[in-house]
Sequence to fold (244 residues):
Amino acid sequence: MFRRVSRPLLSLVMLMASMVAGVGATAGTAHADSCYTWNRTLSQGSSGSDVTQLQIRVAGWVTSGERLSYDGQYGARTAAAVRKFQAAYGLGADGIAGPATFSRIYALQDADCTPVHFSYAELNKCNSDWSGGAVSAATARANALKTMWKLEAMRHALGDVPITISSGFRSRACNNAVGGSATSRHLYGDAADLVGSPSLCRLAQQSRTHGFSEILGPGYPGHNDHTHVAFDPSPYWSAPTCGV
Fold:
């Protein structure tokens, strides 16, 4: 949870550099890290893989019940998510992803593209290669990355409090061993079970505004000791004890 202790200083340096660069500048490699580099300013009407990379990182900044598509199309919903991201980190909230926005993202991610407060190891306590689930290993790992960025948004919205993950990706063998459902989203790599503090109800309530379409928590059978969040093509929320 405390990787890269120099991040606050690095973040300040990056933000100052982006301010000096000016609003009309493009995002150059001088501000990038070893994960990914954006080479142009993005706004409504933009499309491409760089838009998809942006969507992965801002998908947790949506309204209640909303899910942002990873379609590479910079539409109104992507612009709205960018505005929420910008406002959350004290940037000018214009919905245009330029140097200041990218610099903030660079400061929030590690070299493997995971957000600084989460890791692949936290999302996979089953095996080392992400195999044996309901999708390919590569897809399960990619799904876990998307989940981590939603959790990073949720963590920040909660006041930068640590979020503890008790279970993430599961192979069918791992899922069977814990008595998981045969259709569990854990098999797809896009689920996380949350424990500890904030309270389970607080986690269930907050997760509604961070792009999770499946939320199961206290009051739902078998979920009184954790809050489960995931992506599900058929949205379903149930944490009756928490009013969800």
Remarks:
- The first strand starts at residue 164 and ends at 167.
